[in-house]
Structure formats: structure tokens, C-alpha cells
């Protein structure tokens, strides 16, 4: 994960497909957690932002058929998403 340890706010917004102002407005207390999830996702998917964007917007059974973005926006429980990424890191089904 070292190679992804530096990520600008603009890069973070780019990965999410959101304007930076919206991230700051709606998630001011969760920006660090969000950044850590995105760093983990980029590491899991070998730095491929396109794959990360797709994964973030794909329903996942382990998340009750919600997308990671829906979980982040509705519950702010980023640990659920981190757990799914961890399973993928070890080649386990998610």
C-alpha cells in the first residue's frame, strides 16, 4: 500500500466521480476513512481507478446487495467495505 499512501483530495474526488466540494460538504468527518478505503481498493485492484470505480458502484452480496458507495453514504460503516476488500486480498469470495 505504500505506493498509494499519497493521494490528493482531487484524486479522491476523481475516483469517486464526485466534486471535491461535495465530499467536503457531505462527508467532512469521514474523509480520512474514505481515503483509507480508496487506498485499500486501489491496492486490491492494482491501482486501476476504472476497476475501483466499477467495484464501488457494484452491488455486493456481503453488503446486502448494496454497493460500497451506498454503504458509505448511508451507514458510514466503512469497516464493512474494508472487510470485503480484505477478503478479496486473500482470494476469498466476497
From TrEMBL:
Superkingdom of the organism of origin: Bacteria
Name of one Pfam family that matches: Xre_MbcA_ParS_C
InterPro entries: Xre/MbcA/ParS-like_toxin-bd
Domain Antitoxin Xre/MbcA/ParS-like toxin-binding: 41-91
Protein name per UniProt: DUF2384 domain-containing protein
Organism: Dyadobacter subterraneus
Highest classification ranks of the organism: Bacteria, Pseudomonadati, Bacteroidota, Cytophagia, Cytophagales
